[in-house]
Amino acid sequence: MDFVDQLKSQVRIEDVVGEYVKLRKSGPSRYMGLCPFHNEKTPSFTVHVVHQFYKCFSCGAGGDVVKFVMEKEGLSFWEALKQLAERYGIPLPKRSQYSDEDSRQRGSAFEMHEMAQEAFRANLESAAGETARAYLARRGVTPETIAQFGLGYAERSGQALVRMFGKRNFPSAQMEQSGLVGKRDDGSFYDRFRNRLMFPIHNESGKVIGFGGRALAADDTPKYLNSPETAIYKKSQVLYNLHRAKETIRKQDRVILVEGYMDAIGVTAAGVANVVASCGTSLTAPQVQAMKRHSARIAVNFDPDAPGANAAERSIGLLLEEGMQVRIVELDGGLDPDEYCRDRGAAAYQQRLDEAKGYFYWLADRARAKHDVRSSEGVVAVLNALLPAVEKVTDPLQRSAIANDLASYIGVPQGMVLDSFRKTAASRQEKPMERPKIALRHDERLLLNAILADEDVGKEIVGQLQQSDAVAGFASRRVFQAALSLVSAGGRLSFENLHARLEEADQNLLAEAVLEGEPEVTPGAVAAAMESIRRSQERGLRDQIKARIREAERGGNWEEALRLAAELEGSDRAARGRG
To answer: pTM of the full predicted structure?
Structure first.
């Protein structure tokens, strides 16, 4: 067995996809969830556990487990194989035809990041890390939490990583491309992070892909220095701590979004494990979509100062556009999430989460604090301030309900202003992605499933259909023809092999037939489907004879018309005899 086939036979696609997508069982062999490749409100993403295949019927994404990892992690084919093999303990071939130069460079970047993390962790435990340890102690970070989050220290010299990578014979170009090493104008190299507390950043599968470094000296700027964009790190697509938090996010059906590394660490250490943070950037659509794959419910808990509140307000619009259900967590005492958990305790923080306001009440409070709602001008100003956020709500009924709630909350009288607000808030129409319309008869859908359910039965069905002209009238005729060619060539009749022989339109048709529905494939059902096709073929032949009779009659060829009528009568008698 080829290594790729071996790997796919040992890896359950639903387990791999389930690490990125909240799946629910929708049939004996199927799971469904929100597509991880485009934003959607109604699940159209299907995973079939028997055929080990996924398909989105809205955006068209589809493939096997290797392709899924390639697409989600941005990996090459070899890198995806390697990641799956390592994750599931499957030995890799000593020599591989799948590796390429790009994969080797990315592999080197992953390796250098692992080496850097170990070096930073060792530095933190050494005498040189005393200042970093003291800072963590002041912030209440325990040794257990330090180990859990892999915190470390980048020493002052600025040459430690350069020397370490040099001893391992990494080319200078790879060192620079890793983002861990910088290059001066004179051509010399230096460590990007120096005298900083180090926070490793992981991708969703748990590999270290970058770092955030906090300055420990007052005169060091910036306060936080993050890894630059590299081949393995795209900061706009990454959320800090998501790889740890995603399982709890799914279980609790809620994600907590905070601003910084220390907030995520402090809240997690307090026992609230469904927390993530953006990596030194404003919130982006890919980050929101990454959260939504695990839960559409979010509690935003940014710092209570003005910059934090402004950042929360900016984020609300994006969260609403992506279909998230948003609440805002407010902490008293001017404390950030880490400080609040440390000073007030996990129970108090959990209570704040449970009491979190709906975003529109929070926005209304902010607007009312700026404008005098006792005046008509103030009312209009508040409505105008709130309207942009309400317009971003994608569901018309939800927009209308929010408009009513807001009107009541800010004391707007019934009248022209409220009517105008409702009309504007309800005016946005979301245009959903249209699903392809594929007309398949029940019998051909069942037989498509049957030929892939059991290879021996499939070969027998294909052989019988080869003798029938009815297939020519099927929407799926090219799929059956490809199945016949596959069997004739001695190939294995499987979903994957058949799918690979088809053009895109027929690939979609095959996927729709076997992934979107699960007709019960039994010997009786197969026999009934074959009989249905036979009868359909007979009806087609009789329709052809009738058309020829009419043509003969129009041409005055009565002899031919009588002969065809006799042929039609014989065909009808034979059909009645079989019936």
So the answer is: 0.69
